[in-house]
Design goal:
Aspartate Aminotransferase, domain 1, alpha/beta, 2 domains, globular, 11 helices
Length: about 350
């Protein structure tokens, strides 16, 4: 084993089966993993039902998928790469960029897998505390130097759901030679986007959240032109399967389905936020979840009532994250939350 690596498990949300077995409950509502409760497009499900070429390897170019992503995002097709989720995109970048002792700047609290990757690749984690509203503050510039290799900025942030000041992000990009990685996993649920480009800027997105394809692990990114050939050389030969590619293409052919789901989720998000204001301290969100603060052990108490939410201690913050589900799921959550409080 590499002596400089630190091995740490990723802590996933509890599964429905796990909670059923532990508490002997008939009804379980899972609102812990930021999944799209409405599922994938019917067109994607049809592809899945009819796919037969499991014995064939994928085409490593993924050209048709990249063309569809180009149409959807407006990005140049030749700059688009795909991977096994945003996690897979990041893993390839870490392989390419990080030498032992290089610094990776991570504003915290945030998604813990960024830190896991830094430790695995023997990087020095530079953790920058966010402001009270969880936005990145001006103090980040104190941590950027010639050793900085990668700056990771989720937009919106997970688990807190907030956006960042666009002018601050632009200043960060202009003030460092490091790669600035913008994680837009939840961008479809946001009312704002970043419309900038630079030779040290990467945008990454996923089909897991708004498109409801979490189980297929489809991520994609827009890279600077100079980095593309290096990325392809460092990536695994077939990062996503053909069936995943075809389901993604079908989903991008049915963007209206996704947008209808997103609108329903955003409407429910506002209803939940309004209700939570009367019982806990929720924070405004631009994602498909809401972060809130309440007393200790709320997540465990809710498990016993059949509701799975996420305790955010592993993200580096005291509080809870609840995914926005269907109306009946959200009502069940609010009812049980009131009971435990």
């Amino acid at each position: 084993m590499r002596k400089c690596s630190i091995f740490e498990d990723y802590i996933a949300g509890k599964s429905i089966e796990e909670v059923k077995d532990k508490y002997r409950l008939d009804k379980i509502v899972k609102l812990a993993s930021n999944e799209n409760a409405y599922g994938a497009s019917p067109k994607a499900l049809e592809v899945l039902r009819n796919f037969e070429d499991l014995h064939r390897y994928p085409n490593p170019e993924y050209r048709e998928l990249r063309e569809k992503i180009c149409e959807y995002t407006g990005w140049e097709m030749q700059r688009i790469v795909v991977g096994a989720g945003i996690d897979g995109i990041l893993e390839t970048l870490f392989k390419m960029l990080i030498d032992e002792g290089d610094e990776v700047v991570i504003p915290v609290p945030t998604f813990q897998y960024y830190r896991i990757l830094a430790r695995l690749h023997c990087a020095k984690e530079v953790l920058v505390e966010r402001e009270e509203d969880f936005q990145i503050g001006e103090n980040i510039f104190e941590f950027l130097n010639e050793k900085t290799k990668l700056v990771i900025i989720p937009f919106p942030n997970n688990p807190t759901g907030n956006l960042e000041k666009k002018n601050l992000i632009e200043e960060i990009i202009n003030s460092t030679r490091a790669i600035v990685f913008i994680d837009e996993a939840y961008i479809e649920f946001s009312n704002s986007k970043i419309e900038i480009d630079a030779d040290n800027l990467i945008f990454a997105r996923t089909m897991s959240k708004a498109f409801g394809l979490a189980n297929l692990r489809i991520g994609y990114a827009r890279l600077p032109k100079w980095l593309i050939s290096h990325f392809r050389a460092a990536s695994t030969p077939f990062p996503i399967s053909t069936v995943a590619e075809k389901c993604a293409i079908a989903s991008l052919d049915d963007v209206d389905w996704m947008r209808k789901c997103v609108e329903k989720i955003k409407e429910e998000r506002e209803k939940i936020f309004f209700e939570l204001q009367n019982i806990v301290r929720p924070y405004p969100s631009q994602a498909n979840f809401i972060f809130f603060k309440a007393r200790e052990n709320v997540a465990e108490d809710l498990l016993m009532k059949g509701v799975i939410i996420r305790d955010c201690k592993s993200f580096g913050v005291s509080g809870y994250r609840v995914t926005v589900g269907k109306p009946e799921e959200n009502e069940f959550f609010l009812e049980k939350l009131k009971e435990v409080l």
